[in-house]
Amino acid sequence: MLRLSALFLFLMAAFVAPSARAEGPVLVELFASKNCRSCPAAYKAMDELEAQRDDVLVLTWPVDYWDYLGSKEKMALPESKDRQRGYVERFALRGPYTPQAVFNGREQAPGNKSSKVDAALSKMTALPASGIRLVRKADGRVSLKGEAEGLVDLWWVSYLTDEDNDTKMPNPVTSARQIGPWIGGRADIDLPACASACMLIVQEAGFGPVLAVLDVR
Q1: Of 4, 112, 184, 209, which residue is the least packed, with the fewest Cβ within 10 Å?
Q2: What pLDDT was estimated at residue 95?
Q3: What is the CB neighbour count within 10 angstroms for residue 79?
Q4: What are the distances in angstroms from CA 5 to CA 1, 14, 16?
Q5: pLDDT tens digits for 159-179?
């Protein structure tokens, strides 16, 4: 019986699809607040990360749950709180914290701890590619194709960068919304208007792993 059980487990493992990294750059999501004393160090670390590597995209999600410690975080979004709450549940954390960095929806670490950030990035780049492709077409639409294991959310995120960003936060998010579900196959997406800089995020439903990202500026 033990030999049969071992054989069964081996066969099951052989058919389980391995984890896969997102196509394109690694998406690093930083949850932060102006009332967080450790966040400036995380901002500096993320700025250096983007300057040194072209395979990383950083988004900062401003949150307001530290407002009682100081002045109001005017950049805070309800979507930031909802998104971080989803990651808290996914990673079985005791609660939200700042500065939290989430890597492709698969790993999380304090954004001001360089060694932990580097370790999480190494894990992401070591994974095989997801096979999900996003291609910008000549008519402005985006072609999405690949295989999905379940329901996938398409997120359209607007953020500030370069001269439009007058905060210390790296690429702070100004709005986020779902523009449709996807279950795999081929789809042509009409992108909404983009005022500053935007990002299309293909992510397993329930704030799961990020499968692909496309930066639109």
Answers
A1: 4
A2: 97
A3: 16
A4: 6, 14, 17
A5: 999 999 999 999 999 999 999
**What does the pLDDT average to over 98-125?**
97
- Say what the alpha-carbon torsion angle 154, 170, 115, 206 is, to the nearest 10 degrees: -20
What is the C-alpha end-to-end distance of the chain, expressed in Å? Answer: 60
Q: What is the CATH number that goes with domain 23-216?
A: 3.40.30.10
Q: Where are the domains of the chain?
A: 23-216
**What is the residue-averaged pLDDT of the chain?**
90
Measured in residues, the chain has a length of 217
d(CA 110, CA 121): 13
CA separation for the pair 4, 28 (Å, rounded): 43
Residue 75: closest CA among 65, 84, 63, 85: 63
Q: What is the mean pLDDT of residues 35-51?
A: 96
pTM: 0.89
